[in-house]
Amino acid sequence: MLLLGMIIVFGSLNMDFMISLDRLPVAGETVLSSDYQLMSGGKGGNQALAAARFGSKVALIGRVGTDNYGKTLRESLKSNGVMVSGVAYSDTLPTGCAMVAKEKSGENQIIVMSGANVETTHEQVPDEILIKQNVLLMQMELPVDQTVTLLTRAKAQGLTTILNLAPAIMIPGKALGHLDYLIVNSIEAQQIAEKLNLPTGNNAIKLAQALAIKGQMTVIVTLGMKGSVAVTKNGEGWTVPIMPLDQSEVVDITGAGDAYCGTFAAAIHEGKTLPEAMRLASVAGSLTCLKEGTQNAMPYLDDILSRLDEMPPAEKLDV
């Protein structure tokens, strides 16, 4: 059956080991923790769930092991409205895992073990869903060659394409030209600019502008507590703050970036303008920080809309 008007997420699925610490270790140091939790994660799964909770129809494409972790990840996403028929099982590798160590301040360190994610292929995405009514959302936790090939296929069919370049693994310059939207944090933006020999310094707006011109796309740079900035290929710029939060309420910042990306993709798919989508995504990212974990912290559309009035308006930039 042909599925119209949906978001296709090509991404990773991991079981997250959430470890609570008084403070993060330095190199060579052993620290003790009395508490850990197992939670569904992976950037693909997280962003798919964020988009689904916004109200979008979402199909996730990925791969897990035949172990209990893989089955749990699939069932959890399915119960939250994400279509998981495109999540295949590996015969040889275990489900991917991530170790997330978080100290009391909210800062964290993350180590990802890819597992079955490395066997995900672009061929898992059938041609019949690569239609212009759909949006393709990707990250960089799957094999780069498969991500680039799918991006090329999607762009040829007229899909809106969004890449969250996290982690900041370099992709061919030609592939950047197949993107409509690139979402990166300030550190990732700087790393990409350096690899492309773009002289931008540490200025987020200049970084976004240089990357937008280089790839002829819209570039969004997220700045943590300072919100986000965007520059289009036509040179139009916007800045959006985060939703004001009482810092005493902040519990866990782990899922904020994925909430931003998934919500942004859903808002764009719904036809929102760039500044509108950024504001909605900013609220979603902020709300995620008020709960423990990643997927279970993703807000629903009603949660986002109920707090949207607290968001300052987007401001146009002179770039």
Description:
By secondary structure, the chain is α/β, with parallel strands linked by helices. It has a single domain (7-26, 34-317), classed as UDP-N-acetylmuramoyl-L-alanine:D-glutamate ligase (3-Layer(aba) Sandwich), CATH 3.40.1190.20. Helix content is 31%, strand content 24%. It contains nine helices and 14 strands. The protein has helices at residues 43-54, 68-79, 144-156, 173-176, 186-195, 204-215, 256-269, 274-288, 301-307, and strands at residues 7-10, 14-21, 36-41, 58-64, 82-89, 96-103, 108-113, 135-138, 160-164, 181-185, 218-222, 228-231, 237-240, 315-317. Strands 5-4-1-8-9-10-11-12-13-14 form a ten-stranded mixed beta sheet, sandwiched between helices. Strand 12 and strand 13 form a beta hairpin. Helix 5 crosses helix 6 (204-215). The longest helix has 15 residues, at 274-288. The protein is globular, with a radius of gyration of 18 Å. It starts with 6 loop residues before the first strand and ends with a strand. The mean pLDDT is 92.
Which features would summarize this protein structure in a list?
ten-stranded mixed beta sheet, single chain, 31% helix, UDP-N-acetylmuramoyl-L-alanine:D-glutamate ligase, 14 strands, alpha/beta, globular, 319 residues, four-stranded mixed beta sheet
